[in-house]
Amino acid sequence: MKPVEIDNSGTTAGTIEAHGVRLRPFRLDDIADIAASCADPMVQRYLDALPSPYTEADARYWVTEGAPAAFTAGGAAYAIADRATDRLLGAVGLSHPVPQRGQAEIGYWVAPWARGRGVATAATRALAAHAFATGTARLELLAHVENAASQRVALAAGFRPEGVRRSGGPARSGGRRDLTAWVRLADDPPGPSPRPLPDLPGGRLTDGVVVLRRLGPEDDDEMYRLHTGPEVVASRVPPEPPTRDEIDRRARGAESQWLVGTVASMTILDATSGAVAGGCALVHDQPGSGQAMLGYSLLPQWRGRGYATRTVRLLARWGFDHVGLGRLWAGTLPENVASQRVLEKAGFRREGLLRGRLPGAAGSRNDSTVFGLLPTDLAD
User: Fold this and answer.
1) Where are the beta strands (DSSP E) in 45-149?
2) What is the rounded distance in angstroms from the CA atom of residue 158 to the CA atom of residue 145?
């Protein structure tokens, strides 16, 4: 990878100017800004390889030795700079080049004073274009599962999800972390990657009585209480209580699953008090045919108030109007009459019984009653 690009956008030797940012070599007068940025808690949280604490001595080493070595190794290391002031806004680079595969890994960080301005997306797009123009065929972007901001950058820069690399990187505190893999190819279409599951309008769904918002780590305690309740455990597949670690990992990774387009997990709140009433999810299990499954559970004190029916209607309307689904389905155990009544009140129709569909306790199998909903069935 050559660190020079000259094009009609006004670049000079050693710089890339595109998408509103300037990528240039690091300089000694960047040291204070590099040190302040790399000592920031957010940067430290997700870049496990950075020294901690990060000092100006570390920044000086990076400017004089680390960044030049990246180019020598066939990668790249650029400062992201403001085009008007030339002040450092962050860093972007290429690492782990595999020349025989035409492949490299792209990564970045953004200074605290530059966040929220699209800097990471612009820099990623600029460097990706440069890499493809100079022979790279495939770029990988790896992010911690819980680093949703980085995955949003990947989507905006046209990268597509390829799965999770289990224990893909070492953690600063010991052990290893899972990493999500996002990839862009040289011949991928321009622009952002499509979102199978869009964000909720305004960050939530509500009918004035219940509120649905994205599941997050702040919901760990209530979700653990919900999913270890005997009635909820009985409807799980298989019918076993989750561990606290499973609940924590689900909450930390909920936004990532949403961005990837597999599951939209939400917390049900009482609109008046803001208290957690339960949880629900839309599982995008058949995207090719425009179908998805929904599920829901309520904490005991919130049952019998019509909250489940309201939740199903909100989820269904969002699925049809915003996700673009053509069909929703749900399954219940045959004896779960209460859940069947909820579905029927929301407009679902009973479609049949699937014998032995679900794993049960002690190696047994459970039947599943299946309900379906079309946009024209949705009850007001």
Assistant:
1) 76-82, 88-98, 103-110, 138-144
2) 18
**Backbone angle region of 192, left / alpha / beta, with phi > 0 → left and psi within -120 to 50 → alpha:** beta
Per-domain boundaries in the chain: 16-185, 201-377
- Beta strands 138-144 and 176-185 are antiparallel
The residue among 309, 298, 302, 357 whose CA lies nearest residue 331 is 357
State whether residue 373 is helix, strand or coil: strand
- Which CA distances in Å does 181 have to 151, 155, 166, 289, 298? 9, 12, 10, 25, 34
- Residue pLDDT, tens place only, 257-303: 999 999 999 999 999 999 999 999 999 999 999 999 999 999 999 99
**Tell me: domain 16-185, CATH 3.20.20.80, correct?**
no
Contact 219, 226 (CB under 8 A): no
DSSP secondary structure of 85-99: T--EEEEEEEEEEEG
Tell me which residues of the chain have a pLDDT lower than 70: 1-13, 379-380
Could you tell me which CATH number the domain at 201-377 has?
Answer: 3.40.630.30
Task: Give the tens place of pLDDT for each residue, 367-376.
Answer: 999 999 999 9
For helices 337-345 and 307-318, the axis angle rounded to 10 degrees is 50
